[in-house]
Amino acid sequence: MTDDIRNNISRQQAEAAVRTLLQWAGDDPTREGLLDTPRRVARAYEEWFGGYTLDADAYMARTFEEVGGYDEMVVLRDIEYESHCEHHMAPIIGKVHVGYLPAGKVVGISKLARVVEAYAKRFQVQEKMTAQIADCIQRALQPRGVGVVVVGAHECMTTRGVHKRGVSMVTSKMLGSFREDARTRSEFLKLIEMPGGR
Ligand SMILES: Nc1nc2c(ncn2[C@@H]2O[C@H](COP(=O)(O)OP(=O)(O)OP(=O)(O)O)[C@@H](O)[C@H]2O)c(=O)[nH]1
Ligand SMILES: [Zn+2]
Questions:
Q1: How far is ligand 1, taken at its centre, from the CA of residue 87, in Å?
Q2: 21-76 pLDDT, tens digit each
Q3: pTM, rounded to two decimals
Q4: Which of 85, 87, 162, 165 to mutate to test the pocket of ligand 1 (most atoms within 8 A of CB)?
Q5: What CATH number is associated with residue 17?
Q6: Whom does it interact with, and what assembly results (predicted)?
Q7: Cα-flanking dihedrals φ and ψ of residue 60, to 5°?
């Protein structure tokens, strides 16, 4: 047993909670196959919800201004993410597309994917995650505009409840010129639909 403490909850308490749920589901947490499950679930939670220990703004702190005069749109698309809905704690799996129009500052592209990771690995609603990503880029780069489109499949809708497979939720947050200028917005939407690079 470890003395791992997160948010004032010890690993022992977390594992006990998993045992309670196993029992509540109708099984016996003391049977052999389930003995290690609380430990595994606690470790899985560290991975699934690792975003609470990540600082999205810190990833964006390192910016560059020397880009050879490049002042056109930068797009990073098809960033896969795994999240969990805050209503049912069920997985949300999908892709994020991010674009911005630099106003002097750019950021290493991997940092955009790290920002997605930091917000995805939490309990989320897709609308909030979309806005958090856009606002983070806006804060760090003060660009002329930012666009974020998120596509997600919500397992709380496929494996339970309404049981609808193949449904995607699409959310977007547009700031600055992406919001005000229809041509910028449609350029972004066209770029995220182009065939992939490989
Ligand atoms: N807007 C939004 N809704 C979400 C998201 N993730 C899950 N939901 C929805 O949150 C809602 C919660 O509704 P409730 O009526 O409180 O929960 P419920 O009784 O379990 O609802 P059902 O899923 O319809 O069985 C459901 O409609 C979910 O589909 C999300 O990211 N954004
Ligand atoms: Zn849900």
A1: 6
A2: 999 999 999 999 999 999 999 999 999 999 999 999 999 999 988 888 888 999 99
A3: 0.94
A4: 87
A5: 1.10.286.10
A6: Homopolymer.
A7: -90, 5
